[in-house]
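dumping this here so i dont lose it
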């Protein structure tokens, strides 16, 4: 088991991770997750080679016991065409992708699986089943996506949210997005994450809604509407992640220059930021959907094996620590 007080983001005295740790960031997630019993996980509509291979990889690493959910003929045909064996795996047959999403949600709500992995269906179709009133998976919060990003130039893992689900979130939706990311880091051992609410500038401009929302979220944290973290904004990207930039601009902030979480103004900004880091800064980005009663793994066909396994590992660790009572569901 994972020691309750052990962080997956070990810090030095300045609150940063030593450069010597960087090569092992995602490997650390995988190593810790391997030390746990595999979790039963519904792989939703795995009707292409990539989805089946991802499930088999996670199984072979001891992370999951896959439950394949979807049209039986399509799943068997995809596995046969790719030369992959699904012998011995549980397969819950459904008529089509929508039924697969609903059935997987039922399995999760009843505790028969502990997490979901998206297969070859649209993200909206899967999440629509999760947030349906009758699903049993909804919480009082809006669901949101987080990227856990390993950037070589940054001395610790960085959370970017939301880059995949909420297109133009309102202020209250941003509150949920922010709290979801904070709760995830609590599960991963960071007691008081540093949250930067991003905008193009670090001053409030009434013509820029992102700066107004950022200021409101900062006050909401001071008033207890966001808990468990230090929150500050608006902060521009440079002074959120660079101590030098913050010093030059004379920004006095507990977050500036050392953020753990970047809350972006909207999906487009988050998506572009994450992909710029991946393709121009050699970053790796593991993705999870949080805010539901079980974690949901969203992977891309372009993800490397390391990233796919890191995403599943994060889900496994989050489930284990929640079950251990480190954070109430």
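and the seq i came up w/
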């Amino acid at each position: 088991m994972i020691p309750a007080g052990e962080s997956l983001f070990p810090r030095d005295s300045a609150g940063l991770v030593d450069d010597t740790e960087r090569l092992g960031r995602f490997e650390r997630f995988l190593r810790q997750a391997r030390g746990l019993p595999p979790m039963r996980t519904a792989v939703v509509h795995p009707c292409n080679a990539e989805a089946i291979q991802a499930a088999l990889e996670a199984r072979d690493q001891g992370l999951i016991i896959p439950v394949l959910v979807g049209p039986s003929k399509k799943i068997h045909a995809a596995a046969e065409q790719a030369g992959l064996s699904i012998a011995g795996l549980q397969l819950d047959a459904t008529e089509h992708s929508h039924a697969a999403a609903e059935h997987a949600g039922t399995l999760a709500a009843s505790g028969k699986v502990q997490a979901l992995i998206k297969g070859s269906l649209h993200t909206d179709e899967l999440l629509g089943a999760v947030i349906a009133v009758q699903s049993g998976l909804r919480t009082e919060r809006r669901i949101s996506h987080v990227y856990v990003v390993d950037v070589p130039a940054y001395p610790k893992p960085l959370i970017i949210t939301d880059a995949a689900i909420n297109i133009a979130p309102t202020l209250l939706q941003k509150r949920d997005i922010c709290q979801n990311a904070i709760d995830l880091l609590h599960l991963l051992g960071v007691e008081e994450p540093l949250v930067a609410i991003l905008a193009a500038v670090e001053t409030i401009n009434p013509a820029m809604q992102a700066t107004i929302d950022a200021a409101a979220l900062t006050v909401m944290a001071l008033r207890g509407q966001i808990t468990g973290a230090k929150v500050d904004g608006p902060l521009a990207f440079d002074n959120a992640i660079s101590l030098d930039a913050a010093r030059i601009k004379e920004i006095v902030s507990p977050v500036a220059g050392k953020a753990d979480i970047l809350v972006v103004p909207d999906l487009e900004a988050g998506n572009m930021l994450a992909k710029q880091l991946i393709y121009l800064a050699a970053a790796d980005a593991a993705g999870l959907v949080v805010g539901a009663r079980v974690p949901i793994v969203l992977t891309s066909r372009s993800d490397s094996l390391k990233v796919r396994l890191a995403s599943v590992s994060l889900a496994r660790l989050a489930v284990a620590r929640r079950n251990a009572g480190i954070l109430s569901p």
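The mean pLDDT is 90.
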